[in-house]
Amino acid sequence: MRLPRLPSATLLLLVIGCNNQTFELSVTNKTDRPLTIGVVKDGPPYEVDLASPGELAVDTRLDTLPPWGHLIPPGRTIDSGKVTGTFPSGTRAYLRVYSGEHSNAELIAIGEPSYDRIDVLLFPGRNDFIIENDLKNGMIAKRLNPTPAPR
Fold first, then answer.
1. What ranges do the domains of the chain cover?
2. pTM, whole model, 2 decimals?
3. Mean pLDDT across the chain, nearest whole number?
4. Are 36 and 100 in contact (CB under 8 A)?
């Protein structure tokens, strides 16, 4: 019996080993502008629910993409449901926060580092943040729950 041929990236992930991680977020906007937020990851495998605006636009026309992320008005809090993804060793998840409401093209143009964007490392489980204005850096994220100890 012949086994199906797997793409090399899939085979590599099977060899390295992957695990699923789940995140739940609460984000409070204490700035004077709306925030656009989403969860992204910095490695394979590609998952549309964890893709950055730039990754989503690679094979799709920008004018056909739905708006990326979730909008939080000033003074409001958003709670996510469970966000689950596949994470091989070394791949991490981030809360990406953009100041303001932007088109996908504008989000792609806001690189890191930027006064209008922050990426905050997430840990599996519950992650609660307050996003505030900071005169020097633009925005800062205050983590409300303790950072877990390294394993």
1. 18-143
2. 0.84
3. 87
4. yes
Q: What are the CA-CA distances from residue 124 to residues 21, 23, 46, 135 (Å)?
A: 6, 5, 19, 31
CATH 2.60.40 given to domain 18-143: yes
> Which positions ≥6 away from 10 have C-beta within 8 Å?
45
Residue corresponding to tokens 């695990």: 19
For residue 120, the surrounding DSSP H or E stretch is strand 117-121
Helix (H) or strand (E) segment spanning residue 9: helix 8-16
Neighbours of 49 (CB within 10 A): 11
pLDDT tens across 91-116, in order?
Answer: 999 999 999 999 999 999 998 878 89
Is residue 116 within 8 Å of residue 110, measured between CB atoms?
yes
- Can you read off the two tokens belonging to residue 77? 């809090």
